Amino acid sequence: MAILGWAAPGASAQSPIWSQWGQNPQHTGNMPVAGQAPQGRLSDLIFDPFVSQEVAESGALLTHYQAPLVTSSTVFMEFKSGSYVPCQPAGSGQPFPCGPDAWNTEIWNERALQWQNGQLTTLWNFASDWKPIPNSGTAPSKKSLGGWEPMFQPALSGQFIYVPGAAGTLYKLNQSDGSVVSQINPFGTVDASRIVFGGLTADRSGNIYYNVVQGTLAWPWDVDAVNSWLVKVAPDDSVQSVTYPSLLPNAPATCVSTFFGQPLPWPPSQTAQPPSTNCGSQRAALNVTPAISADGSTIYSVSRGHFWPRSGYLLAINTLDLTLQWATPLQGIFADGCNVLLPPDGQPGGCSIYGATGLDPTQNMAGSAGVDDTASASPVVAPDGAILLGVDTAYNYGRGHLLKFSPAGILAATYDFGWDSTPAIFSNNGSYSVILKDNHYDNGSYCSDPTWCPKAPRGPYYVTQLDSGLNVQWQFKDPTVNTSHPNGYEWCVNDPAVDVNGVVYADDEDGYLYMIPQGAGSTQKIFLEKSQGAGYTPVSIGPDGMVYALNAGHLVAVGQLFATTSQLSSSLNPSTFGMPVTFAATVLGSGTPTGIVTFKRGTTVLGKVNLVNGGASFTTKPTQLPGGSSSITAVYSGDSKHAASTSGVLTQVVNKAATTTTFVSQPNPSAAGQSVTLTATVSAGSLTPTGNVLFKNGGTTLGKAALSNGVASINTVFSTAGAFSLTATYQGSGNYQGSSSGLVQTVQ
Fold first, then answer.
1. CA-to-CA distance for 485 and 512, rounded, in angstroms?
2. Are 679 and 713 contacting, i.e. CB atoms less than 8 angstroms apart?
3. I need a surface site. Which of 59, 405, 470, 647 has the fewest CB within 10 A?
């Protein structure tokens, strides 16, 4: 697979940071650096130790996790502690409270992490007293969050990190050491029924915006909300707030319900009208993080009736004084129901024969957006000032819609997916593109009856890029297919990231983090931890291009392998042939590299040794280093975190080994004309020299013979009597020095 991005240079104090949900106050998810190539999982930390129990209770991981916040020096992440109260058996809800109905026994911590020796290590930990709103209340209730754990999302501003606290408060902490600068209470009194809802947003002037809802903790979903606020905290800790009911004084108290309980298919007749229902008070949506216009003048938030998700509004509020600019109702805005996104009327999955084209069959009227408390979709401000918002809808197989509003709040475009999506923005060619997950769920079209609303096939599952008009530019289909997932796995990313080159970073329930280039050409992927059916998880990019992804309660840092440097030394240089030489390699890099070091002479492998504590050594066998000069290198193989490297060439000088020649003749004395055997034995300690021995009688060569096991011999005849001075000269070789020996041969 092609490398999609280079590793950004070292981050500086002026480097961009991932400061909040969606990276910036507009939530565009765009980091102006190139993401690192996914060569390795450089860190893997468990931030949610209760995942296995949470999955056992719900069948999937129904948790909205924090987007990691990343500066040039520090990573900030939610870490859960405390205790988890399991149900017996899992999923039974008994003995109450247990499982998600007892999540107030858990503790939400914000932890600062820094890279030290190739590891993300804890700098400080702050245990917040924030608790999410109860899943159901003090007793089991049919009205609940269904086990979907709400969001805990701090934000960075200046030298501080702001963390949700109990009773609607914020903690202002020093990023450097986690010390509490202040606890900001907008209300003056402490009341645990006031709860921070959704994420915090920091503008470029250092103001913090967030939502608070006051409910009845004993019955939070059966009893109407008490009140709800949008809060603004200035850098000096001064506070402004406004209630959502005061922003929406004319919001209806009674809403149009659905045909629930009436015979299918719907609508029951051409003129049928569903009954009415209590909307409930207007309040902030549970997991919404407000967005801010590029000029800082407007904050965008989402409200809904406490009891009815289809009574929602997109609000534009002046940041200066928190007065309302406009509020756009999300009711009756769709015309893509019967006969459009649904099968033809009268067909399975379609409306009844009374369904007028475009209408929502559950209400027999133009479709309304649902602001669902189990989603985390938040407004995104596009480069042209338009506002994007993902919503739920009741009639398109649970896919929802993505909405685009003009800066004046006029609906400008829709796309038929938006469930739990905060899309990313990629600016290009004078315009921009919108990136989001695009899953096809195995839901019924608008009801759960298998006859009238048979489930759609599972998948396919895409990451989709839209143009600024919400028209498809390209799609990337999840490629992991097996018998249990014949059409792939769902994308679980709810807040994707995109780098300066338009590379999209998104995680999937198949367990992989994907890097998808523009046009969805040569993608890359890396396995994070496990395949996990999950609630939706964000992705962040650091100033150095490191990518931070979440999988099954693990925070995984993905990027280029840490560079290494291999150094090589010799225990004896020069050495002598036949003597052992120990080569020592030291591999330097972030942390402690592991793996294998291969010692080479040129291209010949001398030996392979496991790296221990960054070091490896190899001692040569007697004949592995020939006489002369050899080019020695140490080649480090790399490991899951460290890149391979090769040392510089070490020139090992090997001197020739000294030899001793022993010379004998047989017989001696001999008779004239008798054959005499001349034998030379050449030794070099424990070594066995090779080469040739030259036999001479004075200056006359008698013969030459090759050594065999250190011995060379010839036969010769002396024709006359006398005393002859003979020599045997070992001529040496590339590894051995020459030597000689003489004797007197007596011929009678």
1. 15
2. yes
3. 59
Residues 723 and 691 in one domain: yes
Please report whether residue 318 resides in a domain: yes
CATH number, domain at 163?
2.130.10.10
Chain centre distance of CA 686: 59
| Residue 535 confidence (pLDDT) | 73
The pLDDT tens digits for 681-690 are 999 999 999 9
| CA–CA dist 396, 394 (Å, integer) | 6
Task: Using the 3D structure, point to which of 601, 631, 655 is the last residue of a domain.
Answer: 655
Rounded to two decimals, what is the model's pTM?
Answer: 0.90
Residues of the domain holding 632: 564-655
Whether residues 386 and 465 fall in one domain: yes
Does residue 451 sit in the same domain as residue 534?
yes
* C-alpha closest to that of 210 among 249, 152, 159, 160: 152
CA dist 328 and 109 (Å) reads: 37
Three-state helix/strand/coil letters over 471-495: CEEEEEECCCCCCCCCCCCCECEEE
Residue 332: how many other CB atoms lie within 10 Å = 16
Within a domain: 20: no
Q: Identify the domain boundary among 559, 577, 612.
A: 559
CATH of the domain at 700: 2.60.40.10
Q: Which tokens go with 463?
A: 């990451």
Exposed/middle/buried for 236, CB within 10 Å: 0-12, 13-18, 19+?
exposed
DSSP letter for each residue of 54-75: HHHHHSSB-B-PPPPEE-SS-E
Provide the token pair at 526.
């890396």
CA-closest candidate to residue 41, choices 494, 513, 478, 501: 513
Note whether residue 102 is domain-resident.
yes
Whether 378 is in a domain gets the answer yes
H or E element in which residue 51 lies = helix 51-58
Structural domain total, the chain? 3
CA dist 617 and 684 (Å) reads 27
The per-residue pLDDT for range 283-292, each reduced to its tens digit, is 999 999 999 9
Domain identity same for 105 and 234: yes
Tally Cβ neighbours within 10 Å of residue 172: 20
Q: Which two tokens stand for residue 283?
A: 């309040």
Mean pLDDT of 149-157: 98
For 597-646, give the DSSP string.
EEEEETTEEEEEEE-BTTEEEEE--TTSS-SEEEEEEEEE---SSB--EE
Chain segment 334-345, per-residue pLDDT in tens: 999 999 999 999
